[in-house]
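Q: A reviewer asked whether we had any structural model of the full assembly, not just the individual parts. We don't, so I'm hoping you can provide one. Inputs are below.
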Amino acid sequence: MSTKPEAELRAIQDNFIGQWGALGSQWGINRTMAMIHSYLLISTEPRTTDQVMEELEISRGNANTNLRELVGWGLIRNVVIKGQRKDFYEAEKDVWKIFCTVARERKRRETEPASQVLADCIDRSKHLTSPEAKHLNKQLSELNDFVQLANKLMEKIASKEDSAIAQKLLKLLS
Amino acid sequence: MSTKPEAELRAIQDNFIGQWGALGSQWGINRTMAMIHSYLLISTEPRTTDQVMEELEISRGNANTNLRELVGWGLIRNVVIKGQRKDFYEAEKDVWKIFCTVARERKRRETEPASQVLADCIDRSKHLTSPEAKHLNKQLSELNDFVQLANKLMEKIASKEDSAIAQKLLKLLS
DNA sequence: TTTAATTTTCAGTATTTACTGAAAAATAAG
DNA sequence: CTTATTTTTCAGTAAATACTGAAAATTAAA
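A: Here is a predicted structure for the entire assembly that you could use as a starting point for your response.
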């Protein structure tokens, strides 16, 4: 069974996009958003909304919303092509930069609110004296300490220029 | 405005459980599962399915399913209380252990399948020669290298007995 | 055994989340 | 300005996910 290389490539790309989208939705990531991101990640050229719509077989509204969302995350950017009226989008291709961007955004959007909830409950339970209240306060404090520590670690790692730091850490742990 | 300490504690607990559940659903975590986990986390005593149902105002089926799911994740365990026929559940309270458990489970359930998808697409695109195919192969290889590295790092960290390692890493990064 | 208590399952339903398509708004060319 | 192109919004709908409640299965006491 021989297939045209062109068609074979397309099959692999489609497979990757689909599988990656499915995986993304296990984490809090919208399936379409993950698919658009992977499509742009493996594209050699910037793409228009219409190309995204056609490739992923989705509506204009859906494509538009998720493209903007990706821009909001800093994972893709709008590029202008001279003489072309339409918007083009391209993904950041450097894997380390992608990681840093995601780490920072998740910190801002998720761990900071979480820490806020913890701080609030810790504060409100501080003056209570029952054993149950003591336990609540202690448990939440420990959780908060951990979240803060993990945050600082992530911050340090994600502020590095390249992925060499990860290699170094790995060696240090061996 | 004075409130009974007992009621005040309850209010804080309920607030925490609700907020934590909402946060959990941002990540791929089922709201109820996150709520049950936080309820058991701040409980001083093991709880029965009926207590969970009552506290969170959920059905028996829902409580049962999510309790089993939490047991499956290794975040809570079944405890037997002498003379009692019902099952009791208690959460692992050590924050570092919770982190290690989650890290290991997510690796097993999520990053390993992801790596599998990548390996498969890399392999299938290996023999193709077009620039587009080369780009696909390179991009996926870089992604896979990163995933593998991150995995190894996590593995090392999550295999440590206590959280002292996190402190050490933080210092090394400063 | 039989019976009572408890847990599990799952069909049906509710809720949440995501998507479509068309209309409105914005932008830029003529 | 006026018109054509492109982007954005959003009401309505579809799809995915989670939940209920009751029946079936399991477990253990009598």
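A: Points you may want to mention in the reply: Chain A touches chain B through 59 residues (CB under 8 Å). The helical segments of chain A are 5-24, 31-41, 49-56, 60-73, 95-125, 131-158, 164-173.
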